[in-house]
Amino acid sequence: MFDSDPHIDKALSRCHYALLDVVGVINNPHFDSTLIRETGITLDRPLFPIMMLLEHLGGISILDLSNRLNRDYVATRRHVAKLEYLGLVQSDPATVRSKVRKFQLTQDGQRLSASLNNTRQQIYSTLFSGWDQIRIEAFTQDLNDYYTAFLRFQAQKLKLPD
Fold first, then answer.
1. Do residue 113 and residue 137 come from a single domain?
2. Is the domain of 88 the same as that of 120?
3. pLDDT of 101
4. 1 in a structural domain
5. Fewer C-beta within 10 Å: the chain N or C terminus?
6. Are residues 123 and 161 in the same domain?
7. Do 32 and 110 share a structural domain?
């Protein structure tokens, strides 16, 4: 293990709880509803996180979606089917005949996602209005470094899939 420093331990604990707070706000259904309303679109709120993950990750399976969203596989599959019906999502053509189908946004889905991202950008511009570019870039790099370190830990210690 490593030698513990009480000051670092306290700072890491504050960091952990700050991240939980941020995740709680971002994952709050009211935030999703606000983003959908501010964008001026009609989309069932439970479909929103699936759209955002597909936009961010590209082709992804139902199982991976349900794990990332901490949702039941059947419910996730039902939501993806609704997105397919709406013409916002399609099976990745390379995986149509595969045992594990992956899904991606259609052109309509990409346009809708772009509208949502524009609205999110406006909200974030307000939230970070007092930050300069250097601070925002450093914050983003720190978050990416944390994510990468956590994935490494997960792979080494927990023996879980990436």
1. no
2. yes
3. 84
4. no
5. N
6. no
7. yes
Range of the domain at 48: 6-127
> Which residue bears the tokens 């978050």?
143
Query: Around Cβ 22, how many Cβ atoms within 10 Å?
Result: 11
**Helix intervals (H) in the chain:** 6-26, 29-39, 48-57, 62-69, 73-85, 107-127, 133-153
4-59: pLDDT as tens digits: 788 888 998 999 999 999 989 888 888 888 999 999 998 998 898 999 999 998 88
pTM beyond 0.70: yes
In the predicted structure, residue 134 carries a pLDDT above the cut 80: yes
> 46, 83 in Cβ contact below 8 A?
no
| In a shared domain, residues 114 and 149 | no
Are 75 and 152 contained in the same domain? Answer: no
Tokens of 141: 């790099």
> Using CA atoms, how far apart are residues 154 and 162, in angstroms rounded to an integer?
8
Tokens of 107: 């052109």
SS (H, E, C) 70-103: CCCHHHHHHHHHHHHHCCCEEECHHHCCCCCCEE
